[in-house]
Amino acid sequence: MQVCPAGIDIRDGLQYKCISCGLCIDACNTIMDSFSFPRGLIRYDSEKNLASPNPTAPKLQWKRLKTIGYGVALILMSAYLVYSIGTRGSYDRVVNQIRQPLYVVLSNGDIRNRYQVHITNKAAQDQTYVISASGIPAGALDLGNFREITIKPGHSGLVQASVRLAPELAEHTHRFELLITPRGKPGEVRSETVRFDSPKEQHE
Predict the structure, then answer these.
(1) How many domains is the chain partitioned into structurally?
(2) pTM for this prediction
(3) To pair with 204 at 20 to 30 A between CA atoms, which of 72, 91, 115, 128?
(4) pLDDT band with cut points at 50, 70 and 90 for residue 14
(5) For residue 61, is pLDDT > 90?
(6) What is d(CA 8, CA 25) in angstroms, rounded to the nearest whole number?
(7) How far apart are CA 196 and CA 171, in angstroms?
């Protein structure tokens, strides 16, 4: 009782205040040794062994199905963790279509859809990302006055993008790809397939 940091009496059994520090076990074994009594009056044990009239010494049974199962699960989770760390990219990206409204018909008849590109830099240094499109004309993607964004480590950036297509082209364009490329790292280019909505498609 004197060594317990939680101030509980272990003689009343295990209590919710116990923090499992084991100081009472060490103190009890020290006293038992001084009186030449067997150790283990206070100990970590199973409910089954505590209820047994002849408790046995704790032992590890490796050949139990539960032990093997936990071991295999631990190995698989550790392998997946190592794989995830080794193959994770230096950034995350999410492209969302602004669906209110789905599309806008401009005065000259062109169809415009709007998108939000969210990029998170997971690298340890500033990184510049170039945004482009595939599957539509080069001038159809409008990012305002810039086509790239620089993001600090651990921070995120949001880019507003719009795609404007002529009615004839919009009628046959249902999807296209937005490409996000870290400057100087062409091997880490990532693509997101996004939808393009038009009045013709809605009527169908």
Answers:
(1) 3
(2) 0.59
(3) 115
(4) confident
(5) no
(6) 13
(7) 10
